[in-house]
């Protein structure tokens, strides 16, 4: 009996040493891993040689790795600051950090699912896949993949399953936050930003036509109201801006670059130039 108590006491005294040793090893790993994750995230964000769908997958994966590594680095660091590895891991001091770190657990199955879907689309539509470089793939599969990831994470670890209200709140936070990240990535990339604003312009044009059709059929107020509706609903710059004038260099102010004539008055402009040239010729002969 005394031998068992002595063995238990030895193991109990040895546990803090093991916890601090594992914490030191993990801290050393993340000390070098976090700068590499930041460099990887920057390189992926700046590249334009891969398909936007694949780029989105790599950006999300890089962000999850960086976020999880940062949270673990903070927890491991405070193991030594507080000199209490159990309290640092239990969440008594860093509940928010631990919950943010769970984002990596929730999203661990995100990349495999979304990568499989992306590769299936690339295989089925192999001839036209590279031509379609919009952001609908990101927006459509984002909620679906997050749903699968959160479900698998909670079902595989039933001891951390929160109440249903907390689960729904966490899910919607992830969906909204990831959509915001996706839009941020779109706006940071020049080609994706162009596609994003083109989509908004097309949506505004379609909405404007539907608005005009609605007023024309239901209120019978004629073309004038339809035109006013088009002005109100068209994208910025499509109605209020003057029409583009295709003129040559001879019809432009060389200082300001503005067109000197309207597209419908080019004949009058050349007639005016001819008259001025003739008057100058007459004066020179005198």
Question: What does it look like?
Answer:
It is a multi-pass membrane protein. The chain has helices at 2-46, 52-82, 85-90, 95-106, 110-124, 136-156, 164-188, 190-218, 222-233, 266-285. The chain is built from ten helices and no strands. 76% of the residues lie in helices and 0% in strands. It has two domains: 13-188, no CATH class; 190-238. With 286 residues, it is mainly α.
Q: Quick check: average pLDDT?
A: 65
Characterize the biggest β-sheet.
Answer: none
Can you tell me the residue ranges where pLDDT is under 50 for at least 5 consecutive residues?
220-245, 247-255
**Span between N and C termini?**
134 Å
- Beta content comes to under 5%
Give the count of helical stretches. Answer: 10
DSSP strand count = 0
Order of helical and strand elements: HHHHHHHHHH
Q: From the helix content, strand content and strand pairing, which structural class follows?
A: mainly alpha
Membrane topology: Multi-pass membrane protein
Keywords: Membrane, Transmembrane, Transmembrane helix
Subcellular location: Membrane
Main location: membrane
Give the tags:
286 residues; mainly alpha
Describe, in short, the structure shown.
The protein has ten helices and no strands. The protein is mostly helical and 286 residues long.
């Amino acid at each position: 009996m005394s031998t068992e108590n002595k063995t238990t006491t030895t193991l109990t005294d040895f546990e803090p040493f093991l916890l601090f040793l594992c914490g030191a090893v993990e801290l050393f790993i993340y000390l070098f891993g976090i700068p590499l994750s930041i460099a990887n995230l920057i390189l992926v964000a700046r590249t334009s040689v891969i398909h936007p769908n694949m780029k989105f997958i790599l950006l999300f994966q890089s962000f999850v790795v960086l976020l999880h590594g940062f949270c673990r680095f903070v927890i491991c660091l405070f193991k030594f600051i507080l000199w209490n590895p159990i309290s640092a891991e239990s969440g008594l001091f860093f509940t928010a950090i631990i919950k943010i770190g769970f984002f990596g657990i929730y999203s661990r199955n995100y990349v495999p699912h979304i990568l499989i879907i992306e590769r299936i689309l690339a295989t089925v539509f192999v001839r036209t896949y590279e031509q379609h470089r919009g952001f609908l793939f990101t927006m459509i599969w984002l909620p679906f993949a997050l749903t699968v990831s959160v479900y698998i994470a909670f079902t595989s670890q039933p001891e951390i399953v929160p109440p249903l209200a907390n689960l729904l709140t966490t899910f919607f936070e992830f969906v909204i936050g990831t959509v915001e990240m996706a839009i941020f990535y779109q706006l940071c990339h020049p080609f994706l930003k162009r596609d994003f604003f083109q989509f908004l312009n097309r949506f505004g044009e379609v909405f404007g036509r539907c608005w005009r059709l609605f007023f024309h059929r239901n209120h019978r107020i004629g073309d004038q109201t339809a035109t006013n509706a088009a002005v109100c609903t068209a994208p910025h710059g499509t109605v209020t801006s003057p029409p583009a004038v295709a003129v040559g260099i001879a019809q432009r102010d060389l200082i300001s670059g503005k067109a000197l004539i309207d597209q419908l008055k080019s004949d009058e402009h050349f007639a005016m130039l001819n008259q001025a040239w003739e008057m100058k010729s007459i004066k020179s002969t005198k």
